[in-house]
Specification:
Helices cover 37% and strands 23% of the residues. It is an alpha+beta fold. It has a 7-stranded antiparallel sheet with strand order 4-1-12-11-8-9-13. Strands 3-2-5-6-7-10 form a 6-stranded antiparallel sheet, covered by helices on one side. It has a 4-stranded antiparallel sheet with strand order 16-19-20-21. The chain is elongated.
């Protein structure tokens, strides 16, 4: 028996795509209570966390996931009765699928997860990153077989954390070792770390799993089972001893993932085979891919073989909207995140100085932008002011010469006479003084008379000011 505390936190996006079964409890998309955080403590022979991704817009995928959840519930009961070794040798088959799997007994821990997740062990006062190892000869489904496999032996007071390695890279190893020394406050500490990570350009939320081993009871041991490795009356077997254990790298030596040579070669061959396929795949922020559309296409080809051959011979050209849907902006987002991270870490040994420098640079860029906008606006305004007065006078003072019927020379008798561009207008052409000469070129219309100045300009003046005596 093993007493432990399981903690699972789902990011907001993963909560809409991922369903987790923690022992006999479900959380996530298809759970009754769609909670985002879950903590469970208890004594179990085998601790289980199984995660399944689902395309929430595909009814067939939702149905398949519900079936998988029921099968994993039955499997969890078998694990408690038979033990892990018997279950692995005979229980897991092609009918059980998972995109994440965690199994733990008093003798061994198994983790199946995508390469975008890292498995970390806090033991004593140090943090280690577990390394993938070779998968044993088991009858596993393809969805589980393509995941990274980890195997290691637990001890009392061990702390396991499964999380995105990029999240770990944001912090110093010493800080994390001090933090994980007290797993009782893990939820609060992870919330604080997520807040700090968001300021460094990392996603505001990330999915993670943690396990705190409180007590291990190996049970009654017989003479043949009492080895230096420890064992129980249930699961200690040659099968478990034959599994190659994961190597570890101290986090202070680097947050690295190293595959065994045999596994690296196998992955390269598998990658080459998968690269030949052109079928679209369901991708989640959880880091895994679901071949739902691939399975659906295979079923359609079996049902309509002639149509499948026609499509293979003459594949349709994807439309523009299809290309837009398949376009993934994750690479651009990663570039911006890295640039933001570097900009906020200009000084390696002073985080506060780096942030102050970053803020100063942003304010300087904003001032330059505002200055540029104002410069462009003021330049346009000056051009309009320079152009508008002359053009207005020229356009307004231009009168059709054919409209002139007669010309009578008149001497200005008023002290001041304003010549306007139009009858009753407000635009001024000139101001005449007493004694100046003008030529009247039209009869009075509504108390206004048209006149021509000595320089040829024409405009309108009030009749009573031009002829004050009359």
């Amino acid at each position: 028996m093993i007493r432990s505390t399981l903690t699972a936190h789902l990011a907001e996006r993963d909560r809409k795509e991922l369903t987790l079964q923690l022992n006999d409890r479900d959380i996530g998309l298809l759970a009754t209570h769609r909670q985002q955080h879950y903590v469970a403590s208890g004594n179990r022979r085998v601790q289980l966390i199984a995660g399944i991704l689902t395309d929430k817009d595909d009814p067939a995928a939702i149905h398949d996931t519900r079936v998988q959840l029921r099968q994993w519930q039955l499997a969890f009961r078998d694990l408690q009765i038979q033990g892990l070794s018997r279950f692995l040798e005979a229980g897991i088959n092609d009918g059980l699928e998972a995109d994440f799997l965690f199994l733990m007994t008093a003798e061994i821990v198994f983790v199946f997860c995508n390469k975008d997740l890292g498995v970390y062990l806090h033991r004593g006062e140090r943090i280690y990153r577990q390394q993938p190892t070779l998968l044993p000869q088991l009858n596993l489904s393809e969805s589980i077989r393509k995941l990274d496999f980890y195997a290691f032996r637990p001890r009392e007071n061990d702390n396991f954390l499964i999380i995105d390695p990029e999240f770990i890279d944001l912090f110093m190893a010493e800080e994390l070792e001090e933090l994980f020394g007290d797993m009782r406050q893990l939820n609060v500490s992870m919330a604080e770390l997520s807040s700090i990570a968001s300021q460094s350009g990392y996603s505001n939320d990330t999915t993670w799993f943690s396990v705190h081993v409180q007590r291990i009871d190996t049970g009654q041991m017989s003479g043949s089972k009492n080895t230096s490795l420890g064992g129980s009356e249930y699961d200690h077997s040659g099968f478990l001893q034959s599994i190659r254990r994961s190597k570890v790298v101290p986090l202070r030596d680097g947050n690295v993932r190293i595959l065994p040579a045999e596994l690296e070669l196998e992955r390269q061959v598998r990658y080459f085979e998968e690269s030949q396929a052109q079928a679209p795949k369901f991708i989640s922020s959880f880091g895994n891919e679901k071949p739902r559309l691939q399975n659906k296409r295979t079923g359609d080809q079996r049902q309509y073989p002639s149509a499948a051959r026609t499509q293979e011979e003459n594949p349709p050209e994807p439309k523009v909207i299809d290309r837009i849907k398949m376009w993934n902006a994750g690479g651009i987002k990663d570039v911006f995140n890295r640039l933001f991270y570097r900009a906020t870490h200009l000084f390696e040994h002073s985080r506060s100085l780096s942030l102050l420098t970053f803020i100063a640079i942003v304010l300087l860029l904003l001032l330059l932008l505002v200055w540029g906008i104002k410069s462009i606006g003021s330049g346009t305004g000056r051009e309009e002011e320079t152009k508008s007065p002359d053009s207005t006078v020229e356009e307004s003072s231009t009168i059709d010469p054919d409209a002139t019927i007669f010309e009578i020379e008149v001497e200005v008798r008023a002290n001041s006479l304003q010549v306007m561009t139009s009858p009753g207008g407000t635009d001024l052409i000139a101001t005449l003084q007493r004694g100046d000469k003008v030529f009247q070129t039209s009869q009075a219309e509504e108390s206004w008379v048209r006149v021509r100045l000595a320089d040829g300009r024409q405009g309108y003046v009030l009749e009573q000011l031009l002829f004050p005596e009359e």
